Amino acid sequence: MTIAEIKKNTEAKMEQSIGALKNNLSRIRTGRANPQLLDAIHVEYYGSMVPLSQVANVSLLDARTISVQPWEKNMSAKIEKAIRESELGLNPASMGELIRVPMPPMSEERRKEMTKLARSEGEAAKVAVRNLRRDANEGVKKLVKDKLASEDDQKRSEADIQKITDRFIAEIDALVAAKEQDIMAI
């Protein structure tokens, strides 16, 4: 493996860490309704647990209400129960075949809890990025040890890897700050 390949692989893995962070942040509740909030909910369907999105259409009715439209009529009660029993603190209401999930306004205390959760997700992403930096630097050191690269190449590549790391850490900080602002907006 060459230094260029190490950098390329490291950057690709850091992109994946950013993608995972975005996915995790999208599940954190804000004051507004977000259909992705229900992605983590699983429903019993013919004896096995499946994601809600595989048994119903999940969309927004308005800024504070998610609508869940089961594809089979007999699934309504199971879906409603799964949403109610989730840790999201939501109280769905059936209206015929449509299940409405209103987003209750969040208290100041709950908003602060959510910002702490967003920060911890950001911190976990930073740790992942830093671990990737360490692995890349160790890979370059191994190339130098095996005499496949010079020490000058090592110094240059470590500086480049640090620049890549700094860019991704700044992106993580920006994502977390945007999520915190979203959570604290009333």
From TrEMBL:
SUPFAM superfamilies named among the record's database cross-references: Ribosome recycling factor, RRF
Keyword Cytoplasm part of the UniProt annotation: yes
Keywords: Cytoplasm, Protein biosynthesis
InterPro entries cross-referenced by the UniProt entry: Ribosome_recyc_fac (IPR002661), Ribosome_recyc_fac_dom (IPR023584), RRF_sf (IPR036191)
Residue intervals of the Ribosome recycling factor domain: 21-184
Presence of keyword Transmembrane: no
Cellular component aspect of the GO annotation: cytosol
GO terms assigned for molecular function: ribosomal large subunit binding
Principal subcellular localisation of the protein: cytoplasm
Subcellular location as annotated: Cytoplasm
Pfam families, per the entry: RRF (PF01765)
GO biological processes: cytoplasmic translational termination
Its biological purpose: Responsible for the release of ribosomes from messenger RNA at the termination of protein biosynthesis. May increase the efficiency of translation by recycling ribosomes from one round of translation to another.
UniProt record similarity statement: Belongs to the RRF family.
Family annotation (HAMAP family): RRF
The name this protein goes by in its record: Ribosome-recycling factor
Source species of the chain: Melaminivora alkalimesophila
Gene label: frr
